[in-house]
Amino acid sequence: MSLEQAVRLIEILLGWAFVQHSIEHFKAVRSEQIIYIPRVFLAVLLISGWQHAWISGILMLTALASLHRFQGPYNGGADRMGLLILSCLCLYHMAPTDYWREVAIGYLALQLTLSYVISGWVKIKNPAWRSGLALRDVFQFSAYPVSESLRQLAQSPRLLLIASWWVMSFELMFPLALASHTSLTIMLIITATFHLANACVFGLNRFFWTWIAAYPAIGWFQGRVVG
């Protein structure tokens, strides 16, 4: 995958993520509509590829307006990742040389890798995650819209213990994705499935689309570094 192809895929996926995020605010108060209704049209233009360098910059202005409106990222980690991807796109388009364009997208790939590794490291240091109790509490007491049938999983400690170690393991081993094209494909399928499961079970759909939008960066990076 060439750098240009990776950037075009990132723009399409991020644009789609922004469309979904923004539609949620269409019936909100006017101060939110002023930000998010134009953001939908800008996201569609980003997907189309029309003047994408300028559109990325204008989208950054709407992102800053959102940060001011909500005094920080509206949706936590998903909004932070979206802002990171958008920042790297803007840096890519502003970069004066190919070297600095590669640095911008390479930085995104490294941050994506760290997002998994740090998450896994924080979990594995936590005794509640190592014992499966943290995941039990997620199903039993979570404020997320989990169905009653899924909440019954809180009564399956062995299954939750296995699931806890599965999550921690693939997060910590994510850097192995850079070893080869095959390992990258396998790891991205695993992580995408993980995000999709969280979207279906807990309604965390923002995380799925936003993290997926960064995947082309690591696809290019793996080929650039390892070949």
In short:
This protein has 227 residues and is mainly alpha-helical. It is built from 11 helices and no strands. Helix 1 packs across helix 4, helix 3 runs antiparallel to helix 4 and helix 4 crosses helix 11.
Structure report:
It contains 11 helices and no strands. With 227 residues, the chain is mainly α. It has one domain.
Defining key terms:
mainly alpha
Spell out the blueprint of helices and strands.
Layout lengths: L2 H21 L6 H19 L3 H19 L6 H18 L3 H27 L2 H5 L1 H9 L6 H4 L5 H16 L8 H22 L2 H21 L2
Helix pairs in contact: 1-2, 1-4, 1-11, 2-3, 3-4, 4-5, 4-11, 5-9, 5-11, 7-9, 10-11
Order of helices and strands: HHHHHHHHHHH
Largest sheet: none
The value of Rg in angstroms is 19 Å
User: How many beta-strand runs?
Assistant: 0
